[in-house]
Design brief:
mainly alpha; two-stranded antiparallel sheet; 2 strands; elongated
Length: about 160
C-alpha cells in the first residue's frame, strides 16, 4: 500500500471513528459529566479504531502481535484522552455555559489533533515494521517524519 493509500485509509477510518465518537458521547453526556462521557467514548472507539487500522490501513492480519498492537493503541488512547480532556476543561473555564453544539465542536477539533498523533504513532509501530527491540533504524517510507521517528525492525 502506498503512503497516500495508507493515509487515505487512516483518514476514512478516522472519520467513521469521529462520527461514532460524537454520537456515543452525545448519548452518554445526557447521563454523566463531560470527563466521564469522554473517557468511556474514547475507550470504545479506540479499540475499534485500532482494530480497523491494524487490518485495513497497515495490512496486519492474524493474532501475531495483536496484544502489542492494541497496547500501542492504548498509548494512542492515552494521548487522545489527554488532548480531549484538556479541551473540555479549557472550554469549561473559558465558557462555562457553552452549549452541547460548542462542546461537540471543540471535541471534534480535539479529535482531529488526536487522530494526527494516533496516525504517527500507529504508523511507526504497525506501518513500518514489527517489534523486535534491538535494531532501531530511521523510517523511510516516503512520508515526512518528525526527527525522533524510528522504525522497529522485526518480522511482519
Amino acid at each position: 500500500m502506498t503512503s497516500f493509500q495508507r493515509l487515505a485509509s487512516f483518514a476514512a477510518i478516522g472519520a467513521v471513528s469521529t462520527i461514532a465518537y460524537l454520537a456515543l458521547y452525545s448519548v452518554l453526556r445526557l447521563a454523566m459529566t463531560p470527563a466521564a462521557a469522554n473517557a468511556i467514548t474514547l475507550v470504545v472507539t479506540a479499540v475499534g479504531n485500532t482494530a480497523a487500522n491494524r487490518r485495513l490501513t497497515f495490512g496486519v492480519h492474524g493474532s501475531d502481535g495483536l496484544a502489542r498492537d492494541h497496547a500501542v493503541g492504548l498509548s494512542a488512547f492515552a494521548i487522545a484522552l489527554a488532548i480531549t480532556s484538556a479541551s473540555v476543561a479549557v472550554l469549561g473555564r473559558l465558557d462555562p455555559g457553552a452549549g452541547r453544539t460548542v462542546e461537540l465542536a471543540v471535541l471534534a477539533a480535539a479529535n482531529v489533533v488526536a487522530t494526527g498523533c494516533r496516525f504517527l504513532l500507529l504508523r511507526r509501530w504497525m506501518g513500518t515494521g514489527r517489534v523486535a527491540l534491538p535494531g532501531l533504524v530511521p523510517v523511510d517510507d516516503g512520508m515526512p517524519v518528525p526527527e525522533l521517528a524510528v522504525r522497529i525492525e522485526g518480522p511482519r
